[in-house]
Specification:
About 40% of the residues lie in helices and about 15% in strands. The protein is built from 17 helices and 12 strands. It has a 4-stranded antiparallel sheet, with helices on both faces. The chain is an alpha+beta fold and about 400 residues long. Among the domains are: about 160 residues, no CATH class; about 110 residues, no CATH class. It is elongated. InterPro entries: 4Fe4S_Fe-S-bd (IPR017896), 4Fe4S_Fe_S_CS (IPR017900), QueG (IPR004453), QueG_DUF1730 (IPR013542).
C-alpha cells in the first residue's frame, strides 16, 4: 500500500466505513481512545452491588479506565451498530395454538418469550466476530504496522460511552444506547486500533426528555433511577446470567419471559416502529439472521424442554444464544414461566422438572407446581402433581428444594 494512503487518516477512515457497510453494519463512527468519563459511575455501581453475581466487572475493573486496557497503545475506537432482524416481528400471545408441533393439532401450548436478539438461529458473537476480523484486515492492509482488535461485548470496554463519543447515539434512561433511526434494537461492536484517526462529532443531545416509560414499565423494578440499573432485579440478568434460584419476590414479575427481556425497549417511543434503515440491507439480514425454528415469532415451547438431557440440550442449543444460561438455567426459567402462566395441563412437564438431577430445576418446578395446584380444579392430574410434591417432602434431601416444598 503506498505511503500516501498509509499516511492519510481520512483515506483509512473511508476504507473502514466502506468495509463496515459491506459487512452490514448500519452505523459507523470514530472516537478517540481516551480515559473513560463514566469510569467513576461504574465504580459506584459496583460498590452499590448492582452488578449482582457478575464478578467479571470488579475483577477487570482497572481495564475499564481506558481502551488501552483492552488493546495496549490504543488511540482510536471504531464504533459500529448491527441491527436486529427481528424488528419486523411481534410476539404472539403466550397461550398459543401450535398445530402439529406438540401432540394433537390445535393443542394449547405455552410459549415462553425470548428477547428479540435471540430470534436468529446463530449466536450474534459468531456472526459479528468474523466481520470485525475482516475490518481489522482492511486496516492492516492500509497500515501494516498497526495493531487492531475487534470486540463484541466481551471485553472490558465502555462501549456505549465510546459509541456516543463516535456520534452513534445517546444513552437512554434504560442505560441502552438510542439512535433516532435505529432505536435501541442493535448490537454494539468496536474495533480498537493503535492509529490516531480523526474523530467524529460526539452525540451531545439527549432526546428522552421527560419520558420515563422504560423506568415505569419494568416488571421487577430494576431501575434505581434514570441511567442506573440494579442487575439483581433485571429479568435479563435473572434469566441469562444468574446461576442461582430466582428470588421468590421477583418470580411473578418474570411473567412469561423465558430468556431475556425487552420490556424497557418495547415501550420506548424510539422503538415504536421498525426502521427503514435497520431493514435496508435485506441480503445481509437474510444470510446472517436466519430465524431460529426454536423461537417462531419470539416464542419457545416450554413443556418439551423438560425432556432434554445434557446431550440433547447441547445438540439443540450449542450455537444459539440460549447456550449462555445452560440447561439448568433454561429449565429453571421454563418452570417459573409455567408457574406464572401455565395450568394443570402442564403437570407432566413439571413432574419431569421435579425429578430432574439439578436442584434449581427441581426447586423451581416445585414452586410452579404449587402455584398451578392453587389455581386448578381438582382432577386426576392435580392428584398426580400433589402426590409428587408429597413424595419430595419425604425423599428430598437438598435444602434448596426443601425450602420450596409446602410446609
Amino acid at each position: 500500500m503506498p505511503d500516501a494512503v498509509e499516511n492519510d487518516p481520512h483515506a483509512i477512515i473511508q476504507a473502514i466505513r466502506e468495509a463496515a457497510a459491506e459487512e452490514g453494519f448500519v452505523a459507523c463512527g470514530i472516537a478517540p481512545a481516551i480515559d473513560s468519563q463514566g469510569f467513576p459511575d461504574l465504580v459506584r455501581w459496583i460498590d452499590a452491588g448492582y452488578h449482582a453475581e457478575m464478578e467479571y466487572f470488579p475483577n477487570r475493573l482497572d481495564a475499564y479506565r481506558n481502551p488501552k486496557g483492552v488493546l495496549p497503545g490504543a488511540k482510536s475506537v471504531v464504533a459500529l451498530a448491527w441491527p436486529y432482524s427481528a424488528l419486523e416481528h411481534e410476539h404472539e400471545s403466550t397461550q398459543t395454538s401450535v398445530a402439529g408441533r406438540n401432540g394433537q393439532d390445535g393443542e394449547a401450548v405455552v410459549g415462553g418469550k425470548v428477547a428479540r436478539y435471540t430470534w436468529q438461529a446463530t449466536d450474534y458473537h459468531d456472526v459479528i466476530h468474523p466481520k470485525l476480523k475482516r475490518i481489522c484486515k482492511t486496516i492492516l492492509r492500509l497500515c501494516p504496522a498497526a495493531n487492531a482488535r475487534g470486540i463484541v461485548d466481551t471485553a472490558p470496554l465502555m462501549e456505549r460511552e465510546f459509541a456516543q463519543l463516535a456520534g452513534l447515539g445517546w444513552r437512554g434512561k434504560n442505560t441502552l444506547l438510542l439512535n433516532k433511526t435505529l432505536g435501541s434494537y442493535f448490537f454494539l461492536a468496536c474495533v480498537l486500533v493503535d492509529v490516531e484517526l480523526p474523530p467524529d462529532t460526539p452525540h451531545e443531545s439527549d432526546h428522552c426528555g421527560t419520558c420515563t416509560a422504560c423506568l415505569d414499565a419494568c416488571p421487577t423494578g430494576a431501575f434505581v433511577g434514570p441511567h442506573v440499573l440494579d442487575a439483581s432485579r433485571c429479568i435479563s440478568y435473572l434469566t441469562i446470567e444468574s446461576r442461582e434460584m430466582i428470588p421468590e419476590p421477583l418470580r411473578e414479575g418474570i411473567g412469561d419471559w423465558l430468556f431475556g427481556c425487552d420490556v424497557c425497549q418495547e415501550v420506548c417511543p424510539w422503538n415504536r416502529k421498525p426502521t427503514k434503515r435497520a431493514m435496508s440491507n435485506e441480503s445481509v439480514l437474510q444470510s446472517d439472521w436466519r430465524l431460529s425454528p426454536d423461537t417462531p415469532r419470539g416464542l419457545m415451547e416450554l413443556s418439551t424442554l423438560f425432556q432434554l438431557d445434557e446431550e440433547t440440550f447441547r445438540a439443540r442449543f450449542r450455537k444459539s444464544p440460549m447456550w449462555r444460561t445452560r440447561r439448568r438455567g433454561l429449565l429453571r426459567n421454563a418452570a417459573i414461566v409455567l408457574g406464572n402462566v401455565g395450568n394443570i395441563e402442564h403437570a407432566d412437564a413439571l413432574i419431569l422438572g421435579m425429578r430432574d438431577a439439578e436442584p434449581i430445576v427441581r426447586a423451581s418446578s416445585v414452586w410452579a407446581g404449587k402455584r398451578i395446584l392453587a389455581k386448578s380444579p381438582s382432577d386426576a392430574r392435580s392428584g398426580i402433581l400433589a402426590n409428587e410434591l408429597k413424595r419430595l417432602a419425604i425423599d428430598e434431601q437438598n435444602e434448596i428444594v426443601r425450602a420450596e416444598l409446602p410446609s
